[in-house]
Amino acid sequence: MQIAVIGAGRVGCTLGGRWRDAGHHVTYGVRDPQVDRHRDLGPVASPAEAIEAADVIVIALPWAAVEDVVSGLDVGDAIVVDATNPLASNARDLEAHAGSSGASLIAGWTGSTRVVKAFNTTGSANMADPTYREATPVMLLAGDDEEAKGTVSELASQLGFEPVDAGPLSAAGDLEHVAALWIRLAYRLGHGPDIAFALLHR
What fold, for 2-188? Predict the structure, then answer.
């Protein structure tokens, strides 16, 4: 599968690296492909060039940069995975979007009906290694396109998560609040980043 990861921070690099190890072709889309720190990533291009042949486009940018970058992208029929969280400048609290969500805004900015909210409810350490003795960490996802959600579910499974469909894209705001809770537990309440949510079945 051709995957374009827009952003080369911890989340983008971790997801892209693991999917490359799983056999996918990954290209990173970054603002300045010539920067030395991108040299070891593998294929790197501008965001517009990175998505040209992509089956899946993963948005893994700081929220403050998302609108500027994605509004200019022609995503075509590719699946757009929103791995962002609309965090305010203090990186702790969600920005208010009048009953909407970051994922809904991305759908509007890109004009895509194939946006799937996923990979936003846990930290990059869990994306690198989701192994826990007690249970398999859950990867919640939301979107309106069932085929797109199926593809993203498979990508989540390949990383070691249990994918769980949380409903249509209108549920994305719930996932963003789950992310805010994970951040609070991990960093403000001292549990650290090696924690994960799981869905247990009796």
Answer: Rossmann fold (3.40.50)
